[in-house]
Amino acid sequence: MNLSTAQEGKEYIIQRIETDDEELEDFLFSLGCYSGEPITVISHLKGGCIVSIKDGRYNIDTQLAQAIIVF
Q1: What is the CATH number of the domain that holds 7?
Q2: In sequence order, which residues have a C-beta less than 8 Å from that of residue 9 and are 6 or more positions away?
Q3: If you placed Cys at 3, which of 37, 53, 65, 69 could pair as Cys (CB 3.0 to 4.6 Å)?
Q4: pTM score above 0.85
Q5: pLDDT 10s digits, 6-37
Q6: Which residues neighbour 63 within 8 Å (Cβ) at sequence distance 6 or greater?
């Protein structure tokens, strides 16, 4: 399952990032978004969603949310 289909308010564990864009992967890593880390979807928006990673909240677009695979 990816973040765009994840339930709001439930904590998930990041399984992997599915992207060929190394710059995007580095950006996510700098936010603390990498395999094994917990992530929570705060709310879904029209163009993406708001997520909580570690102590921060981030607004990510739909394309990025679909690249983050969780379980």
Answers
A1: 2.30.30.90
A2: 40, 41, 42
A3: 65
A4: yes
A5: 999 999 999 999 999 999 999 999 999 999 99
A6: none
